[in-house]
Design a protein that fits this description.
6 strands; 6-stranded parallel beta sheet; 10 helices; about 200 residues; Rossmann fold; alpha/beta; binds NADP nicotinamide-adenine-dinucleotide phosphate
Length: about 200
Amino acid sequence: MSDVKRKIGIMGGTFDPIHIGHLVTAEAVRIEYGLDKVLFIPSANPPHKQHSQVTPAIHRYIMTVMATYSNSHFYVSPIEIERPGLSYTIDTVLALIEQYGDKTEFYFITGADAVQDLPTWRNIDHLLDLCYFIAATRPGCICSLDHVIKNFGMKGRQRIQRLPTPELEISSTDIRERVRQGRSIKYIVPESVESYILKEGLYIR
Ligand code: NAP
């Protein structure tokens, strides 16, 4: 029997909307860590965003599918959209282990600002046993990851890794603001996503 483990990236995010920065980051992690594939998982009800306005999950899911379609290593999973209740990452990773088997290594890729809050995530100790965290750091991000890594001791040093991502100068917040102000989002999001946003009238108010 082969001991070679399959490596899967989990690109978790709200993706409101998905943009070029997310795609470049996922591809960079895929190559750097030799991942077999990257699963994009739009969150349905992020636990830390219960009081903020998030675009309906179906729009975010469709845009993510359109944006990733041309990369043969990228897939989109509706797992969090189909699961009722809040979108806890521990539930998602446990479901993926059941699906792919425990011979798989998982790499959870997300923004460094989100990783900064890891100590508050549900069952975080167990989650760190189950997957690596790749923290994509935006230029100018003053995220104190050292503190978080130290907080988890040896496990933190082994499981949480940084990836500088200049492309993350782009942000979903900035894109929503541009649309609201009638400014161009061309080349910041894939063409299909731009057309979808304009056709569906997303982010106008
Ligand atoms: P967020 O607070 O919207 O984003 C934090 C920062 O990270 C933003 O600057 C965001 O930029 C960036 N970012 C988000 N996803 C990214 C990705 N995949 N790659 C690179 N940058 C990314 O965070 P979020 O999107 O809601 O949450 C991130 C992930 O963590 C989700 O999968 C969420 O379910 C999970 N999470 C889980 C728990 C929990 O289990 N308790 C708690 C919090 C978050 P953009 O706005 O440009 O994307």
